Amino acid sequence: MSRPAFDPAAYDAQLAEKKARLVELLTPFAAPEPEVFESPREYYRLRTEFRLWREAGSENRHYAMFEAGDKHSPIFFEDFPIASLRINELMPRLKAAWQASPALGFKLFQVEFLTTLTGDALITLCYHRPLDDAWEAAATQLAEELQVSLVGRSKGKRIVVGRPYVEEELQVAGRRFRYRQPEGAFTQPNGEVCQKMLGWAYDVLGQRDDDLLELYCGNGNFTLPLATRVRKVLATEISKTSVNAALANLADNQIDNVTLVRLSAEELTEALNDVRPFRRLADVDLKSYDFGSVFVDPPRAGMDPDTCELTRRFERILYISCNPETLAQNIAQLHDTHRIERCALFDQFPYTHHMESGVLLVRRS
């Protein structure tokens, strides 16, 4: 991971540049003015990772990152103002612990922090050696002192002290939704902006009397609030870890109108096109759904052409994107049948060129 160019004084200008870039990409499709959702200027990132770098001629190691393409010139950190306050509070205490304890510090080469807006925290410690009983005893004591969960990773082994996930709460339209966010699985890094994304999607979808198809549902981040706006939801996700988290999140929030199937978007497209049957859909009556809307939150590559073509069948396409270029490519494929009714910019990644964006596409009359 390279070091972000942290400069709060430049934030407004950088955000304006992102908006201009999104407007330029969407202008060929007669998009309306994007709604812009800002990020906090600092302490916004809920997860981050550091390599540890040893000083020449010393056993002291420091939190380090590198510029892109350079793995030999570390940049050292004592604190990290783009990361959450909880991460900044934990950094010096963890460093003191590994320096004082050979059981914790020996051949430790990477540290990963995962935190939440509610203050929950999980730390992953990665080693170039097997983990033993001495490590587990030291880690158990440290986890209690720091009030965190700890995960130790070495080749072929993982030891969990506490829970292998953190618990988050996000508020949407006056309701609080609880989320389990597993170690090692994808979660939105900017919690404050994530809440704004959920609120925007909830508002844009509106209250419906039909059904929703959701592709790439992850741990149910959008599924939970959107399920309260429709009759029922069919959601798909390929990652087993994310599926298990999503099922737990649905149960924790007492949401019972969602059927979740572990399929890729491409596989579901084949199923809906009657290309081939899938055992995981054996108990799902696809013909019982009255789909009015489809929600997609694909990876950076966007939707593949067949999945994009599938979404054309729906009256409304709600699309969250982490790559505006592939978003524009997908819209170009759909533009002859759908128009952009609303669009938004979510600044998940301040001080970088990355952005999240959203569009609502509605079938042309």
TrEMBL record:
Binding, S-adenosyl-L-methionine: Q188, Y216, N221, E237, D297
Assigned keywords, A-Z: Methyltransferase, S-adenosyl-L-methionine, Transferase, tRNA processing
Active-site residue numbers: C322, E356
Cross-referenced Pfam families: tRNA_U5-meth_tr (PF05958)
UniProt function note: Dual-specificity methyltransferase that catalyzes the formation of 5-methyluridine at position 54 (m5U54) in all tRNAs, and that of position 341 (m5U341) in tmRNA (transfer-mRNA).
HAMAP family: RNA_methyltr_TrmA
UniProt protein name: tRNA/tmRNA (uracil-C(5))-methyltransferase
Gene: trmA
